[in-house]
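Many introductory courses stop at the sequence. We go one step further.
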Amino acid sequence: MRFDLVDLSLFRHVVEAGSITHGAARANLALAAASARVRGMEETLGAALLIRSRQGVVLTPAGRTLLAHARVLLDRVERMQGELAAYAGGTVGQIRLLSNTNALTEFLPEVLSAYLGRHPGVSVDIEERTSDEIVGLVAEGAADLGIVAGTVDTGTLQTYPFRQDRFVVVVAPGHALAAAEAVSFADVLAHDLVGLDRASALTRFLADKAGRIDGRSLRLRVQLRSFDAVCRLVECGVGVGIVPETTARRAMRGMAIGIVPLTDPWALRDLTLCLRALDALPAFARDFVAHLRHPQTLESRANPSGGLPSGAGLG
């Protein structure tokens, strides 16, 4: 068998993207070339690696075995490249990070900006997923690390605390919920909602929570791409929204909205960093983990006046 690194990398991309078309795009290959490479791998092996259908691809037993070995080999190559690049005066590599909606929108932008500014040769590939999905993908090697809700069972993964926030309801001043001291998610479901698009991790999470309450569903009037846009539509009276408290407090500075705490236990979010094994990561990725674990240092630099950083003291 003569599978080169391009073959193995392409195969990993195809499996993680769920189709040869999307895998080829991730690998920067033409679809015809990617298809030919996958067929060549199967011919060399003498067995099918993928079951193809209109819905995408599914691994065969041989494909699962190849994927496991491909991930190990590619991880080792990436680690070697990163560590050897240090001798040439710089670090070159890619970090694959999965994040839930809360961490991705509220906390990662500042953290990434500071890290990438110090590591010009490193790129970070970020994908938004639900916390349950992230744990499974990190465990099987589809990502280097993930940021999940602290309530999720992370199994044997190594975990470190990241940040804390809570979800709250944002309402227009004249809304029926505006005078409430606190409200349950079940009561919120009786009202029209402004939320993120249905593909977002948060909307899928909230839809799952709604379904567990007598099979109820979200009354989504408008679906948007950002929490700030959600707050703006709430201010206009379209409906109520569920957003991180850090977002709501920031939005209140320029919008006429109110905040109502959610009473559900899951509304308090301890965000957790999870990974398979810290020692197995390349040096630049270990440095990134250390960077994520100590965000207070970044906040003190960005907040020289000594006031509390955004989100401090929540919960």
